[in-house]
Specification:
This is DUF7882 domain-containing protein. InterPro entries: DUF7882. This protein is of the alpha+beta class. About 25% of the residues lie in helices and about 20% in strands. A three-stranded antiparallel beta sheet has the order 2-1-5.
């Protein structure tokens, strides 16, 4: 089972080595071209209910870790299918994955904004100036 580390998240996303190897090629190709896209999956039956979507862009670091020291043999048909899917809709949909709650949290880039307290708006009051 390989692992994908997204942004500054310390909890990896667990993906089978073979799928991760194919995903790495497709993601690297898109990012090398400066193209952003999403990757989405449903949480498997051992995870909290839901689904996760990641925004993939060149400024967000990715790290791929594989269990096997030997590279996987890539299936050209699967690479083509994944590349076609992301080219058509700007998104990749993966099979269900084990997803801990922490994997769906912020990359850390906007963590301060998410901790900022919400200030209630008073009807008729002007917004902040500055």
């Amino acid at each position: 089972m390989g692992m994908l580390y997204y942004g500054s998240a310390t909890t990896p996303i667990h993906i089978e080595d073979e799928m991760l190897a194919h995903l790495k090629v497709v993601m690297a190709t898109k990012l090398r071209r400066g193209e952003s896209f999403t990757v989405t999956w449903r949480h498997d039956e051992h995870s909290p209910a839901g689904r996760t979507t990641l925004w993939i862009e060149p400024s967000i670091p990715l790290r791929f870790t594989f269990d096997s020291a030997d590279p996987c043999v890539l299936d050209p048909a699967l690479l083509r299918d994944l590349a076609d899917e992301v080219s058509r809709g700007g998104s990749l949909t993966l099979p269900p994955l084990w997803t801990p709650v922490a994997a769906s949290t912020s990359t850390g880039r906007h963590a301060a904004a998410s901790r900022r307290p919400r200030v209630p708006q008073v009807a008729g009051a002007a917004g902040p100036r500055g």
